[in-house]
Specification:
Blueprint: H1 2-19, H2 30-36, H3 46-63, H4 71-90, H5 116-125, H6 127-137, H7 148-156, H8 161-167, E1 178-183, H9 189-211, H10 218-245, E2 247-253, E3 263-269, H11 271-302, E4 308-314, E5 325-331
Parallel strand pairs: 1-3
Antiparallel strand pairs: 2-3, 4-5
Helix pairs in contact: 2-3, 3-4, 4-5, 5-6, 9-10, 9-11, 10-11
């Protein structure tokens, strides 16, 4: 019974391994089988498969008997293989823009990412030549390219057409990145305590400053209002930041050696945090305006104006000045 359960459990994995398209038209998935002692499955990333394949082919090309080549061809071939090692290290591979069903070569994709053979051509005889071949044979296999330019390049650099075809990977369909919606009712103990502390502080300071006017001097009420205004500003800022963080979208890159999905988009929502943030904003704004105005009034009552103007109406009747006069005086 346990054996039957194990077979059923592993059946989808085995089916996916059989149905997956090979990475190369000549040697298939020989590289992956050699490296990992198994065939690839849908859970193996394309990047891992391409790198495994190119490293395997590079090792075999380095071991190939090239005694039939001229000295110049041997020299050119060595340069070519060094460029292939560089290409593997860079790891910018094109995507499948031809088929959503099966693997297919792509000489240069729409983002300018170039295939392995195209990279070797670009590094040795120029990007223009690679672009020219791409215009004619973008999605074609090396063995099917009828190009004298390609034949001349292969001969000059001591590479057979079959060896070039062994290098050329076929790329799988472009996978749609996954999206995860995360909704939580948790506020977070740190944000909850901070919000409760700010709200309580505003209420206590406001009540103390303005409800017991007989017990406190103008100066004390003024500084209590300033303290309440400061706490209100902090509450307002905390509420705005909390509201922005109560719903956020971000992208997390995946490890290409673990998953075939390039990245995952996360959408996090915290509705309770949003409500508490709105309370922080409302309370902070009201308290800021109210205590700010009260502090201004207390300040005005504490400090008399710098210039005082006094006026008095004087009337001393006499024959020379029968009209009353207005007297103005000021003090600093």
């Amino acid at each position: 019974m346990r054996f039957l359960y194990l077979v059923i459990l592993l059946l989808p994995l085995n089916l996916s391994a059989r149905n997956i398209d090979p990475i190369n038209a000549v040697i298939g998935d020989e590289s992956f089988n050699y490296t990992f002692d198994r065939l690839p499955n849908v859970y193996d990333s394309e990047t891992l498969r391409i790198i495994t394949h190119l490293k395997y082919v590079l090792q075999n090309l380095e071991k190939t008997d090239i005694s039939n080549l001229t000295e110049q061809q041997k020299y050119n071939r060595a340069i070519l293989l060094s460029h292939l090692a560089k290409y593997i290290e860079i790891g910018n591979f094109p995507k499948n823009e031809f088929s959503n069903i099966s693997n297919r070569p792509n000489f240069i994709d729409s983002n300018g990412n170039i295939c392995a053979v195209g990279f070797l051509i670009a590094e040795t005889i120029g990007r223009e030549t690679a672009e020219h071949l791409n215009a004619q044979y973008q999605f074609e296999y090396i063995m099917n390219m009828d190009s004298h330019i390609l034949d001349q390049w292969l001969h000059e650099y001591g590479l057979s057409r079959l060896e070039a075809a062994m290098i050329q990977p076929a790329y799988g369909p472009v996978l749609t990145p996954s999206t995860k919606n995360i909704s939580s009712t948790e506020v977070g103990w740190d944000y909850g305590l901070l919000s409760a502390g700010l709200f309580s502080s505003q209420a206590i300071l406001t009540y103390t400053a303005h409800s017991n006017k007989r017990e406190h001097s103008l100066k004390k009420r003024y500084w209590l209002s300033i303290a309440a205004t400061t706490v209100s500003a902090v509450s307002l800022y905390t509420g705005i930041e909390g509201f922005k963080n109560s719903e956020q979208n971000y992208r997390k890159e995946s490890n290409p050696e673990v998953t075939i999905i390039p990245y995952t988009v996360y959408n996090e929502k915290y509705p309770r945090k949003k409500i508490i943030s709105l309370i922080n904003v409302g309370a902070g704004l009201f308290s800021l305006v109210y205590n700010g105005l009260q502090a201004f009034n207390y300040k005005a009552d504490m400090e008399p104006p710098r210039i005082r103007i006094y006026s008095s109406l004087q009337y001393i009747p006499n024959e020379l000045d029968p009209i009353p006069s207005l007297s103005l005086s000021y003090s600093f």
